[in-house]
Amino acid sequence: MKTRIELDDNIYNKKVKEESVSKIVGLTKEIVEEISKEKDEPKWVLDIRLKALDYFNKLPMPNWGPDLSMLNLDEISTYVKRGINTSDKWEDVPEEIKNVFDKLGIPEAEKKSLAGVGAQFDSEMVYHKVQDDLKKQGVIYCNFDTAIKEYPDLVKEYFTKAVPIMDHKFIALHYALFSGGSFVYIPKGVHLDNPLQSYFRLNSKGAGQFEHTLIIVEEDSYLEFIEGCSAPGYNTLNLHAGCVELFVKKNALLRFSTIENWSKNMLNLNTKKAYVDENGKIEWIMGSFGSKISMLYPMSILEDNAKCEMTQLSFAGKGQNLDTGLKVVCNGKNTSTVVNSKSISKDGGICTFRSNVLVNKKASNSKLSLSCESLMLDSISRSDTIPSCTILNDDTIFSHEAKIGKISDDTIFYLMSRGLSEEEAKSIIVRGFAEPISKVFPVEYAVEMNRLINMELEGTIG
User: Going along 148-242, which residue ranges are E strands?
Assistant: First the structure.
């Protein structure tokens, strides 16, 4: 019986015409000032941008990990404007852009299972809406540019506080150029039954996307937030350097899920960090597909009795180098960290998992368990696990387990003896390997992840 699924990559590779698009190319003080003026920002925001530009010019390029020497910012469109204001009415979104998001299933997902949705196209949010009953409870979910103007005191209190401007060269670049993204505030004691989702689409050839997501979950509250990312393929480099700042207060829980399906001409240099207060919990759920190079290591800073869980899957094919992992800082006592990471590589693709763990002297009775499994589908692909751990007390339990292997010839032979082709047998094994990760996502996004896995196996993404 034939189980091969026929898939059409046009759902992700559809491009929108750019006749009426204005682009700002390159990175100078004048360009940063022009972007800020275009957005009609207050002076304190421009000051942050210019300070970040100064840091970007001073900070060195990363001297480890994938080679980024092919990036030339003088050739990147650092701001792409379509003259569209953010709307809370889907019918107000231009037809061509609406068609792309329709194909990606954004409106349908909102109807079925989401409490709110944001949709960004290139440098600007085009749609943002939250359910009316949540507004009545004090929930804020809006475009980040809108938050700067309507909730300035709240933004000032948290913006750049989780991820400082000087953290590294590409976060400085982000703060100089940030545009779009989402702002979320969940008041004390509010539990959202359904997730919020923001979807980021980079359409323009040779462009960059620099969205900023800032989420505050107050005491005794709960939020599930989902990011989706995609871009059509081009023969020139695109750049993604977004930033996510998360604040999880006492007894709060934040579940942050991401499925990244960038095109294979993308440099994905993203930064994410969470501060987790006493008895709080952060759950990272990550699916990394596409992109030429990815460098992404979500960081969690844990106070007393705080918890961090990470579930991650990466899939690297020909010409891809996916360098991912996590950072954890245990500041408080009785913290818990559990990591389950899986990677798949084929056709010479490279998957690397890096972990950087710091357990401070006062963080007694900390428990950390890291598990990494890698599956290589051929002899020319590569998978590496690079752990780094600093423990400053003698009352910590730490374990790191890594397994790297290839598909068993015996297993392939067994499945083929049952009537499957070699391609079908490999597909079943890969889906079985990924299943513990995909089932953690909500149903709709588990389906999305399985679709992406099948498309990778078919070689049709990017």
Answer: 182-186, 196-201, 208-209, 212-217, 222-230, 238-240
